[in-house]
Amino acid sequence: MIIETKKPQDAIKKMDVAGKIERLPKTLEERSKTYAVAAAKPKMSEAMKPQTPGLITTAAHTLIISSRCVNHTSGQVVKAIRDIFDAREKGVGIKSTDLEVLKPESALPLIIVRYLLKINSDHGIPDSLKRQNGYAIEGIDWKKARVRCQRRTRNPLKCHLVLEMSPMLYTHL
User: Could you give phi then psi for residue 54, rounded to 5 degrees?
Assistant: First the structure.
């Protein structure tokens, strides 16, 4: 059985191994050698952003715009916003009798208490937390502490509780 050796040699010539070996030191020099050098390079998303000064590509703040008319659908509200609101020409501001503009309220911090017995009532849990942690958080208002929801666990007798509380109380717990 005779095998031709020309085909593997032709394949090696087509791969241009010698040229790749010559370019290898250049590619190794281009790669970053330390973590600090790699971290200093700009991320691809930042590099791809437009470099026009004064152009904001993301939203600066959030507004909640709703209709005062109960019968309006979301499509009608969006159409009314597009008709009235043009930030490039008029700037920021909506003056309309049909639309209501609100700033969103900041959400209160949440705490998850895991594997709590379901026997405990929603009203008694903040009281028992106040009694157990009273030495650490004296003088802090517990009126905003409430149970937001209960989450299921695998054990039908237990649950995870999601508690909502004031930021001051959250930092001290």
Answer: 85, -5
CA–CA separation, 162 vs 113, rounded Å?
Answer: 7
Res 54 pLDDT > 60? no
Judged against a pLDDT cut of 90, whether residue 63 lies above it is answered with: no
Q: Where are the alpha helices (DSSP H) in the chain?
A: 6-15, 17-30, 35-40, 44-48, 74-84, 87-90, 124-132, 167-172
What integer pLDDT is reported at residue 1 of this predicted model?
Answer: 44
Q: Please, are residues 77 and 66 in contact by the beta-carbon 8 Å criterion? A: yes
Q: How far apart (Å, rounded) are the C-alpha atoms in residues 118 and 158?
A: 5
Residues 81, 65 contacting (CB under 8 angstroms): yes
Rounded Cα distance, 173 and 170, in Å:
5
The three-state secondary structure class of 165 is coil
pLDDT value, residue 115:
92
Domain boundaries, the chain: 64-102, 110-172
**Cβ neighbour number for residue 39 with a 10 Å cutoff:** 9
Higher pLDDT, 104 or 95: 104
